[in-house]
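Pinned message: reference record for HET-domain-containing protein
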Amino acid sequence: MWLLSTSRAELQFFSAPEAVTGGYAILSHTWGDCKQSFEEIQALNQQCKTTGENPRDLASAKIHECCILAERHGYQWAWVDTCCIDKTSSTELSEAINSMFLWYACAEVCFGYLEDVPSDCVLEASDSAFRNARWHKGGWTLQELISPSLVIFVAQDWKTIGTKHELAQLLQQITGVGWQVLTRETHFSTASVGRRMNWASSRSTTRVEDEAYCLMGLFNVNMPTIYGEGRQAFQRLQHVIMKQSFDTSLFAWGRSLNSG
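Predicted structure (tokens):
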């Protein structure tokens, strides 16, 4: 896995999460228009070797602030999906997608960045920005909510809102995921297949294939990623789940194997 040094936003490769001395922070967020790729960060790193500048100071605002926040919490390394995966390599992309649940689980801390939530938001209000945050509607952010042991939610100005544990009751109302799962009193795998599918039912992804790929970790399955296969990806996911589970709640859930 590739990680960013929090002091300089320089990329370094590690063979596995446990190879990262001191652990690492990881970012959970929703994608916007302004993002830097793996290649762009590499180019920035090379440019700054010539100019003597700190690449962190020239990185995108999200990467810059994430590195600063992680460093402030005592971590030398951080993972940001936009720039820590070489998406030009289909092999690396597939490996990353299949490993992502593990990478979030192994992180010492996950920062849930809510770019549409102000820090003075009244969280409990029925129409609060926190309740309506895009983050709660994303497909990928479901596993990013459940997998890490510590999730710290931060507002658009990167100020702390609260932790997953502190906000578990409110998060249950918003996401449908039980507070016992969020506080780790109950392991998520004890929830039926149908219930886990239901957690994802109101969420969406930009690419249709990701509706399946973002759930692999939640069901502890692996399969090749084939962008371009469309909704067949979800059918493949269901077949893989069936092969390793006798849980018939898969069929009680609202989406059948033959659905488009």
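Pinned by admin. Summary line: Confidence is low (pLDDT under 50) at residues 255-260.
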